[in-house]
Design a protein that fits this description.
Helices cover 71% and strands 1% of the residues. The chain has 444 residues and is mainly alpha-helical.
């Protein structure tokens, strides 16, 4: 037993709350050190005896980490092939003027973001908008903001589109197809998945963009088009999606490992890496491993341990009791509180640690109230992910887009960003809020 355990004694709950609060404050104050803060907190939970060291391997969700790592690698190969840029060129050729180009680019960013990380999507699509703006001698700011918020919105449409979706899948034991149509264990009927709810929300939010860009009718024409010589990364990305779909059909009698989705993502990426290594194209392999977001992987590993630690101490159950007390046991009030609190919180707090923390809270709430768990799961996911669009610092994709504009000499103030992002986000969240309740309040 660790030495410090005797010093904590009956104060385990209080110490856990304080340590958890300090961890969150530290991650907010020192964004560049978030992963190390989370890992340090995880170590303290073990050293203090709050979480037994024997439970460490089980505390980390390896399926989630492998899915993220494998997808990151494959996406890097996809970006390096320049296929996304070629697809953007094709969309622009079909656009009669600047208004339609921006709309199509935002839609394109959304489609790509359903399968590719949001930041990667912005890095792929934003340069095209900058190039168009330069040719037309106009500001690229509105177009870049539109691309950024569209990519954030569509990230939760599929299992692989956003880290928060992968976290939900891990907590709720969902597969790729469950984001399309879903029948929870024990339920009598199927319900539509997050994909379709997100599409309706996307349509509502995109309608606002037509109003914002209604005066931008300058004709456009691209003189240079992207040339793609390597289609293998596109095959790899499609294989990842198809692989995740296929394993969802395999019967439970096969007793597949619970990390099967992560294994699929990692194996397909490694196949791609080996393919290029054998062709002596080690440059792209090095780039794929170099561009992998190890920081986020370490952050999540630390958070998984911290969350298991506060779970062991009873903190998660206490948080659930707080939500239950405020909602007075009313499921609709609880759902409403969860969605809109998540929207507000995610406007200032990174949605990955927030969702990772709140998922087990939702599980406890659903169990205590006997409420449909998935209406709360999907409410949390939509509120937390879309809420990041409210402010320039609410989502990594927003920060990346402002970084691109800064390099181009455009400094965007929070007010200018929120003039577009707030109505866009509120329209999307409101539609999602209504649809999730209608579709899931009586299922699961």
């Amino acid at each position: 037993m660790p030495f410090f355990t005797s010093l904590i004694g009956e104060h385990t709950l209080v110490v856990s709350v304080v340590l958890f609060a300090v961890t969150y404050i530290g991650m907010l104050a020192f964004a560049k050190a978030r992963a190390y803060i989370a890992l340090g907190a995880a170590a303290l939970f073990v050293l203090l005896g709050i979480l037994p060291w024997r439970e460490l391997p089980g505390a980390v969700n390896w399926n989630v980490l492998m899915m993220i790592a494998g997808t990151m690698g494959t996406v890097t190969l996809f970006i390096e092939s320049r296929m996304p840029a070629k697809m953007a060129d094709w969309l622009i050729d079909k656009s009669p003027n600047m208004k339609w180009a921006v709309i199509w680019l935002s839609v394109f960013a959304g489609v790509i973001s359903a399968f590719v990380d949001n930041v990667a999507t912005v890095l792929m699509v934003a340069p095209v908008a900058v190039d168009i703006a330069k040719k037309l001698k106009m500001s690229p700011v509105p177009a870049i903001i539109a691309i950024s918020i569209a990519s954030n919105l569509q990230g939760v449409a599929t299992l692989v589109g956003d880290t928060t979706s992968i976290l939900l899948a891990g907590e709720a034991n969902m597969n790729f197809l469950d984001f399309l149509f879903f029948k929870p264990p024990g339920a009598e009927r199927w319900g539509i998945g997050m994909f379709w709810i997100v599409q309706v929300s996307f349509l509502a939010a995109t309608g606002l963009l037509f109003f914002v860009f209604r005066k931008d009718k300058q004709p456009i024409h691209l003189e240079e088009h992207t040339v793609v010589k390597d289609y293998f990364p596109t095959v790899l990305l499609l294989s990842t999606i198809v692989g995740l779909i296929l394993v969802s059909f395999l019967p439970e009698a096969l007793h597949l490992p619970k990390e099967i989705n992560g294994i699929v993502c990692v194996v397909i990426f490694l196949i791609g890496a080996m393919f290029y290594a054998l062709r002596r194209n080690t440059g792209i392999v090095k780039t794929a491993f170099k561009e992998m977001d190890y920081f986020t992987l370490l952050l999540l590993a630390g958070l998984f341990i911290v969350i298991r630690g506060i779970g062991e101490a009873g903190v998660i159950e206490k948080i659930g009791e707080g939500f239950r007390a405020v909602s007075a046991g009313n499921v609709f009030l609880l759902y409403t509180l969860l969605v809109w609190f998540s929207v507000f919180a995610s406007a200032f707090v990174d949605n990955i640690p927030y969702v990772a923390t709140m998922l087990p809270v939702v599980t406890v709430l659903a169990d205590k109230l006997g409420a449909p768990a998935y209406v709360l799961y999907f409410g949390l996911l939509s509120g937390a992910t879309l809420g990041g669009n409210l402010t320039p610092i609410g989502a990594s994709a927003n920060i990346a887009s402002l970084g691109i504009l800064r390099k181009e000499g455009h400094t965007v103030k929070a007010g200018a960003f929120m003039k577009m992002s707030v109505p866009y986000t509120l329209a999307a969240v409101a539609v999602g809020y209504i649809l999730v309740w209608i579709c899931w309040s009586t299922v699961g």
